[in-house]
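ok so for the tutorial part 2 we go from a plain amino acid sequence to predicted structure tokens. step 1 is just haveing the sequence, like this:
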Amino acid sequence: MDDLPFHFCDAVVSTLKDLPEVSSFYGSWKVAFEDHRTNRLAFDLEISSEKNGWSYSIYQIEEKSISRGLSLQDFLQLPKKYIQILRLALRTISISLQLLDSVGLRAFRSTNDELFQLVKFAKLFMNEPTLTVQASNRKIDALLSHFEGVCFEEICLVEPSPKQIQFLKNQTKFDRLRSVVFPDHAAWPEEIKNFLEQHMTISNLGYPAATFRK
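step 2 — the prediction. this is what the tokens look like for a chain of 214 residues:
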């Protein structure tokens, strides 16, 4: 196994969400793991629906800081084998782009074409990320449908629409979903709570939040 060509090991490692310590690996595997542990680029992606279009933020959360954020053009130039998107958030714009910028999180306005170019590219690097949907409207629901083929590890729906609930049900079929968070447990339809109880268990039932885990 240690004699496998580096390009094979490198390709396999680039698909892994979590990278193990390299001490138990040798040869090409060790080199590949060391390379990715050093150079991996893990991002959060936030997309906001605005009255006349969209805005997005692509940023890295480091141990003690948040990166300023990348434009779509910058993001497209990154070495693809190192990219991982750990979290996706969809929401309506509630604070100004200037305020986002003042706290170190740059947001960029985009056209529909630019946004869907970003979505198509970003999906390539989503390996069981977490999903937070903080709004419910036609634009957000339509955007969410573009992520149907992505397996999410955790989903949080703040104001779930019927389409978002169906999206959640579809996610249970992938057997990758490990956690569902209800920020407002009382507002959720009994139908979806009963459905989740068949697939998961309640690990935390506070008020108003609830968490189901597998």
